[in-house]
Amino acid sequence: MAAAQGLTAAAVAGRALSYVLMAAALVALLRAMEVDRWLAIAPVGVFLTAQSLVAGEWMVGGAESKALAYPAVVAAVAAAAGRRSGWSGLMLGASLSMHALVGVWAGVALVVGVALAGAREVRFRAHLAKGVARFAGGVVVTGAWGLWAVLRTLLDGGEGYSGWAIYVSFRVSHHVLPADWRINRDVPWQLWIGLAVVIALVLLVRAAWRWRVVAGVVLASSGIFAAGLGIDAARRTELLRFYWFRLADSWVPLATSLLAAGVLTWAWSRAAGSRGRLLLRAAAGLVILAMAGHLTSQVVDQRRRALAMEREHTASAERATQRWAATHLPDAAVVAADPGADTWYADGDRAAFALYKASPQSARDVATWAERLRLLSGEDVTEGGVTRRDLVVGHGRLDGAALEQLCRAGATHYVARRTKAPWPAVLLHAERGWGVFALTREDGSCATAGSAR
After folding, report:
1. Is 43 in the same domain as 169?
2. Looking at the structure, do residues 306 and 332 belong to the same domain, yes or no?
3. What is the value of pTM for the model shown?
């Protein structure tokens, strides 16, 4: 669809699909928990405005694979709460194939959560073998691709420590490195998770099965979160690549909203007479209206800023330069483009030597990617403290020797925010401060920085 209709149309369609799937999954979970769906609108609306505790995770947002994986996770929990083990396995397998890490951690949390929920239940133990078989069968049917991806990642060899340490510290530190978290100052994450764990323990002892399953998933995801903190404390940085904080970071806020919806449902059922229910309905209505206004203003503001950025970027010299490269450079060109460019693959349409956003998913390739970023910018990302901005600035200041190194490493062209560059770069096109340069001679060989033109 992106190729036929463009990235914008594909992004809008992808988001719409993920929203519909998440709405259906949440309705299924609320039904399984016997929570009033209308009374859940306000709490779930609050969750949508604050989906992350500290690690920047989200369930509902952009058009990414995890935006399709999380609805499957919620549907899997809903099926487990309804004692439909086969369907739960199918949904979990789907999440695994959509996004391996989301599916893996959701699978661990769901299995442990269901085990905790049924630990004291005779009915659960009596049907355990049959339930496990149905669940495992469902996972295999829809999750075979994801299982293969997980196995392939675990078997990946090469420079494991150095490659993954670079990936964690440089590329995704804001998600997986506690020292770089964007701390929520309003409600400290320690307090939020602590309260969630206490409430979950109470529900495990006193609540019905449908609530015990949700509580068990909260406890299991919090345990995975705690394991990640232990790994960080032990300074095993390379192991943080597995995103230990991902599930609890978003599941705890969601579970909190579900608990609030459950409390509202309970209050509704206990409200004395029509007057009490009228007051409760009015209060819920006011909260819904306030949340709807807040969400609408956020959406409108976000859309306005996105349109302004799109207009600015569409008319920008950078994007015009990228489009020129797409129509004038050979199909086999390997371009040393600005490593911070977000739209190169959409507009440049040529192989990039390396990009900050396009990080590989194997240790060996991450090490190669880091070396290519060094050649592109002169910045060694393995030393720490290097930012995306540093890469961009360094890329625009490469000297002749660095450009020769790029050529010998496989780059055929150089695109940067400059219209003058030292030999062996030869200017092919200039666009309002941006330039496209050739790094190779006509015969495809690399000239030396000190040679004559």
Report:
1. yes
2. no
3. 0.82
SS3 55: coil
Asked, for residue 258, whether it belongs to a domain, the answer is yes
Query: Could you say which of 222, 245, 263 is where a domain stops?
Result: 263
Residues in contact with 4: Cβ distance below 8 Å, sequence separation at least 6, in sequence order: none
Q: What is the mean pLDDT of residues 391-407?
A: 92
Backbone angles phi, psi at 440, to 5 degrees: -115, 155
CA 10 – CA 19 distance, rounded (Å)? 14
Question: In one letter, which amino acid is 51?
Answer: Q
Mean pLDDT of 140-165: 78
22: nearest Cα among 39, 5, 47, 42: 47
- Residue 8 pLDDT exceeds 50: yes
Q: What phi-psi label fits residue 131: left (phi over 0), alpha (psi between -120 and 50 degrees) or beta?
A: alpha
Q: What is the mean pLDDT of residues 117-129?
A: 88
User: Which range (163-177, 213-227, 261-275) has the least confidence?
Assistant: 261-275
Residue with tokens 């505790």: 53
- Give the dihedral sign, CA 311/317/323/324: positive
Q: Is residue 384 part of a domain?
A: yes
pLDDT at position 272 over 70: no
Residue 4 has pLDDT above 80, yes or no: no
d(CA 67, CA 73): 11
Q: Of how many residues is the chain composed? A: 453
Report the alpha-carbon distance of residue 14 to residue 100 in Å, rounded. Answer: 19
Place of tokens 């029509």: 274
CA neighbor of 302 nearest in space, from 62, 92, 77, 117 = 62
Side-chain-side CA neighbours of 259 within 13 Å: the count stands at: 20
Q: What is the spatial distance between Cα 90 and Cα 217, in angstroms, rounded to a whole number?
A: 18
Task: Give the pLDDT band (50/70/90) at residue 158.
Answer: very low
